[in-house]
Amino acid sequence: MKIQDAKVLITGGSDGIGLALTELLLQEGARVAIVGRNRERLDQQQARLNVPTIQADVSVEADVQRMLREALNHLGDVNVLVNNAAFAQGSSLLDLKLDEYQRQIDTNQTGAMLVARELAHHFVGRGGGTMINVGSVSGLRGVAGQTAYAASKFALRGMTQVWRSELRPHNVRVMYVAPSEVMTDFAAKGGRERTKDSGRRHCPDHP
After folding, report:
1. What keywords would UniProt list here (predicted)?
2. CATH code at 9?
3. E-assigned strands of the chain?
4. CA 63 to CA 151: how far, in whole Å?
């Protein structure tokens, strides 16, 4: 697929990695619609980048179904999904509260599944597509204080392997990418401080 032919839906697209990817894809000629929960941030990016925005909570099934309908209305088609919406809230096992754990699982794991399922139906119906699940190095090795986040990203890596096997016969490519440390506000939102060094690595950010 030529990048100019890409019609991309990006969840978690109003900031961080999702926003940076949106900017890059637009520069290369793709069409992009972004999804987020925060209306104010979505409005800011819509005004700045002139992209369609969709307010939705990926952990809510009805929101995800509406999200796809709106994306198709905006773009005419969707042939690429960047399944990126996630957040981290750090806590040691000794201090971990059930609601804190469940919120991360609901968004990062269940939400990723709901989005993937809806787009998989669409891709199979149209004869193909590309699904990119944004994982983390936390899905490859655990980090202290990140029980819920690591659990969600390990799960996403496993689900990606399953979906790849299931969808390959339908001409749907499924990929998992595992970013390490990137310079965004992700860590601060998760209750961790940014670190600074020689410039090679700045923020312990595992989207």
Report:
1. Oxidoreductase
2. 3.40.50.720
3. 7-11, 31-36, 53-55, 80-83, 129-134, 172-177
4. 24
